[in-house]
Write a structure and sequence with these properties.
Length: 458
């Protein structure tokens, strides 16, 4: 029996949750067009839809909220955040944004020309869509091992550097406005990237004069994986590791709703002052003045506090062990997951679990619906609903290599018994797995369809 880590905090405030009856769950799901994003949260018992903005803030963060300076321009809270970003990431220039995708939109608006290519290990959904919205072409160059769910390797988020270089040569550096890497790799199991790989990626991008940006939502979890797994890093602090990582890049953006444990917020940071000037102009047009960028002063203050809490090693130790605990419990049942356990989530291999459901009937969607009906648990499909798209040249449908369901753990929110409940529910679902059916889409928007699509059972 795996062991759950002791939480390095105690509970000071509680929020009641309720398990609706099976009939209530069935009608809530049907009313939502079988899309879990449309189910009211009150009808969800254990909400593992996302780790984004769903964490529990600490007493220090709540105290920061009270200290927020709400001045329109030059608020004290902005300078506190600026100091934290300089201290942890080492970037001189940054703007706050209301969340990660606002930073992505600014970067795409300023840098992406139609039919240019933007490489990464794997772009997550909003990054992918923001690039496509500007007629750019996101390209995923993660190591092939990322697509082998049972392969237990330490840095499964690493980019294939040999492929990256070949690909740059054949694409032409003039067609690549910038390159990225996502840490940890959310589209591929929450898997970390090693410093060795980050150094190689940075060296290649820079040799071809391609600016290098890091999608840094879960940078702290990535740093702790490096401390645990990469030779030569066990005695470094997570903050020292972060400094080293970001010294390799020309910029970074962060949805701070993840590793800064705030309910809203993000930023875009860079070294190039002329890019910063253009970013400010774009920000003023859409988000707000550069010293608040769509956030309240109190949000900036809580974010600055949260950046340090997210790097705290006793917290990170508990965090990664809690995720691994859920992974072990699920594996014991026989359900295939992406191994090893990711930082923020366990990814169920829905394609293998529901191998009787073809990709165009969305096995991941069938699994999230089944989990909700069986136990009032909400997860996210990360498969063909989220990522299948028409090839812009041939018009052919391209399906992702894996059909996954992500069970994302909100930070400092659920306890061992909640996770045991999730594992027990999965056990009964596993026992009757051949009885579940696929889905067809009856409504979908052009981009990011998973948020608002509606389905019907086959
Ligand atoms: C890797 C990654 N990048 C970008 C984003 C977008 O951030 P936000 O949801 O704050 O807009 C997310 C959100 O889940 C993410 O996981």
């Amino acid at each position: 029996m795996p062991t759950h880590p002791a939480e390095p905090f105690r509970i000071k405030m509680v929020e009641p949750i309720r398990l609706p009856s099976r009939d209530e769950r069935k009608s809530a799901l049907a009313a939502a067009g079988y899309n879990l994003f449309a189910v009211p949260a009150e009808n969800v018992f254990i909400d593992l839809l996302t780790d984004s903005g769903t964490g529990a803030m600490s007493q220090e963060q709540w105290a920061s909220i009270m200290r927020g300076d709400e001045s329109y321009a030059g608020a004290r809270s902005f300078y506190r955040l600026k100091d934290a970003i300089q201290d942890i990431f080492g970037f001189d220039f940054f703007v706050p944004t209301h969340q990660g995708r606002a930073a992505e939109n600014i970067l795409a608006a300023l840098m992406v020309q139609p039919n240019t290519y933007i490489p990464s290990n794997m772009h997550f959904d909003t990054t992918d869509a923001n690039l496509r919205a500007r007629h750019g072409r996101p390209v995923n160059l993660v190591n092939e091992v990322a697509f082998k769910p049972s392969a237990n390797v330490p840095f499964k988020g690493n980019m294939d550097t040999a492929r990256l270089e070949e690909w740059i040569k054949s694409t032409g550096k003039e067609n690549i406005p910038f390159g990225c890497i996502t840490i940890t790799n959310n589209a591929g199991g929450g898997q970390p990237v090693s410093i060795e790989n980050l150094k190689a990626v940075s060296e290649i991008y820079h040799r071809y004069d391609i600016p290098f940006f890091i999608d840094a939502c879960r940078f702290a979890e990535n740093c702790y994986f490096i401390k645990l797994r990469e030779p030569g890093y066990s005695s470094k602090t997570t903050k020292e590791i972060a400094k080293e990582i970001f010294s390799l890049a020309d910029g970074a953006w962060m949805s701070s709703k993840k590793d800064a444990i705030v309910n809203i917020g993000g930023f875009l940071a860079m070294r190039d002052e002329s890019l910063y000037q253009r970013v400010c102009n774009e920000l003023i047009l859409r988000e707000g003045f550069p010293t608040y960028g769509g956030l309240a002063g109190r949000d900036l203050e809580a974010l600055a506090t949260g950046l340090y809490e997210g790097l705290d090693e006793s917290y990170l130790d508990y965090r990664l062990k809690q995720t691994a605990y859920l992974g072990e419990r699920i594996k014991e049942i026989g359900i295939p997951i992406i191994e090893p356990a990711g930082g923020h989530a366990i990814y169920l291999d829905a394609g293998a679990l529901f191998s009787h459901i073809p990709q165009n009937e969305f096995p991941g969607q069938a699994l999230v619906a089944a989990l909700y009906i069986e136990g009032g648990i909400r997860g996210t499909e990360i498969g063909s609903v989220m990522f299948a798209h028409k090839d812009p040249d041939s018009g052919e449908m391209i399906y992702p290599k894996l059909e996954l369901v992500r069970l994302a753990l909100p930070r400092r929110v659920y306890t061992q018994s909640h996770l045991d409940y999730v594992a027990d529910t999965l056990k009964s679902l596993w026992d009757q797995r051949s009885s579940y059916k696929g889905y067809r889409i009856v409504y979908e928007p052009e981009l990011l369809r998973h948020f608002t699509a509606r389905f019907e059972p086959m």
